[in-house]
Amino acid sequence: MPRVRFVARVVALAVVVLAGVGACALDPQGDGSGAAAPAPVGVTEQASGASAPPAPSRRPTASPTPVPSRTATPTPSRTPSAKPKPTGFTGCPEGEHQRAVETYLTRLGGFGKLTVDGKQSAADCAAIKKFQRRYGISPAAGRAGATTYDVAKRLADTDVHRCKGGSGLTFCVDLTRQTVWAMRGGTVVLGPTVTRTGMAGYATPAGTYSVGGRNLKEWSNPYEVWLPYWQQFNGGIGFHETTTYLHNSAIGSHGCVNLLHADAVRLWELGSVGTRVVVMGRRPGT
């Protein structure tokens, strides 16, 4: 009897063990840890899809872990990239009157070496900026624009020897070119430099005069404004430092000869009561 019970227990244990092995092998989800369960012997090819499409899964399977591409990441070329060739000087902008301004500044001299080729360069830029600062042109950015061209042309075209002053000191005014200079005994001692004279309705009259009165700071009663470095030569008309932007050609004085600060100071230092004044030509538009 005991032997029969022992054999029965062995048979029952064998059945339980075989049933457990079959359950693990058929569970596509493995043991719930995320690891794949071993495939049953004899169905590996079919389960892998090598010879037949896999059977549809009864439950959603975990997303496969992405496999890095075997394509090699392109490496930078060892050949150095070609640097762009310089297309010209870019330190300051090139203006529409580049060649003309280069020509006039070369004729005037004193602003540095320029190359008359119509192309901006470091030397051209520096010379144009120097010219603009000297004659109060704003902005002094080195660009050969309309104002720079106009001022350079007027100065270069001024014929200083048209002013006949004799042996003494003479202040000369060219109304046509809107320039001023000073001569002593046929030698230029100032200028030529820029000015702005009477506007339409207040034209500065041509003629020969002499300085009759001077004041470092004259008050204008009719226009209620101070006139620095005042030198009167014809009634209420005289030389003085400008009170507005000199290169605004849309306006003008009420007959006076407006000057930049540095020129008004220099003319004051040179002049005295009795200094001869020669005014020639006529301002365009008056």
UniProtKB/TrEMBL annotation:
This protein's record includes keyword Signal: yes
Signal peptide: 1-25
Region Disordered: start-end pairs: 31-95
Active site: 240, 256
Domain L,D-TPase catalytic residue range list: 169-280
GO cellular component: extracellular region
GO biological process: cell wall organization; peptidoglycan-protein cross-linking; regulation of cell shape
Xref: PROSITE patterns: LD_TPASE, PROKAR_LIPOPROTEIN
Listed name of the protein: L,D-transpeptidase family protein
SUPFAM superfamilies found in the cross-reference section: L,D-transpeptidase catalytic domain-like, PGBD-like
